[in-house]
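# step 3/5: fold
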Amino acid sequence: MGKKSNRFLSFTTPPPLSRHPWIYVNDPTTNTPHATSLQDLIGDCIVSHHTRHDGDLSSTQESETEKMAVCLDMLKDDTFSAGQNVFLITEHLADSKTADKLETATKFREQAIKGGRNFASVNLYLQDGTKKKEKAKWGPNHLELGITNMTVKEVAQEIYQWLFTVLSPAEHVHLIPRARLLAVDKRNFADYAYCPIADTKSRPMDAKIQFVVVIITKPVVVPNTQRLQWTVADKSGMGNFYFQYRGDTSQYTWDWVLALKPGDVKALPRMPMVQVKESRHLRFAKFPLRTAGSAMTGIGLALKTVGHGVAKLGDITSMGKSSEWVPSGDVVVDGKDGKVKKIDWAAKFAQESKDRKAKFEETQRGRCAKLKAAIKKHGLPKEKDGESMGDSSTLRGSEYENEKAIVSEKEFC
């Protein structure tokens, strides 16, 4: 498979947004108030009340068929528009009806899995919950909760918080009310407008926009760069964010980003972009090669399974674009001609490291020169009779301090 060029190694495509989960809740109380309260907490939630009609087999079969039809219709919808919601299945069964609860939960769980969704189940009980030997039948994402001494609000809050522990951060997006994911940071970024992730490409590159997102992955340092990258999501989709270390002035933000945890909800502004253009002379000089490079790059990508050569050739030959949009923090205005130039941070930090090394070596040479001059003037320190050179390091007294310093410095030359 073709090998990517280094300039693309730090950018990866995020996975698609996960589908909204299905949640089964058995509420033993009349009118299922706990499930209704849970629906209010989630906000974007479709509720299906699963009912059973004892003694009327045809009615029971009809009800089961209707409920399964609703599930299958929703499973066919592969879009991620604003109409997509968490599917909450509620049932009103007594503590003793464990077998019936398991039957319902099992059917819905199978349909959810086949449709590429996660599933969680909750069994609320008044006196007796599921027996220990039968708990495994519910599956891993299951909560048993006695509600005798709890208010409706407390029960709903308990279930809601528990869902965040069993579902992934990517699925948290579906549990969070839409209003919370519209709460922009007006204090620090008052002039930055809200933008859903999916609408990013439709906004001007130099627009000031901010996103309110769920952190999906912990920020990591991209190999061979000074860049942090992490994945985020909102109700419109998923995206990869990055932050470039730009020296001491960016240390605070670097530390702030590193402290982000999966599941956090944060407002993140996008740094305004600046368009950097090549000079007219350079643009015309590159034009023939740039055209050929683009063609070869296309061939390389189409034939990347043949080997590294063709794909790599396209990357090497491509001369880049005549202009590109660069984050404003990654450009500098040249004092001579006033043109905006892109900063190569890797090269900048490499040069700083090289300069520090050269300065250190120069300092060491100066210290060695002073040491040689001191030895030439005063000679090497003499040992006392009967004492080895190694013992001199244990001597005390002002008459030996200078000599000890000279010996010790000599070891670093």
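# step 4/5: annotate
The chain has a mean pLDDT of 72.
# step 5/5: archive (pending)
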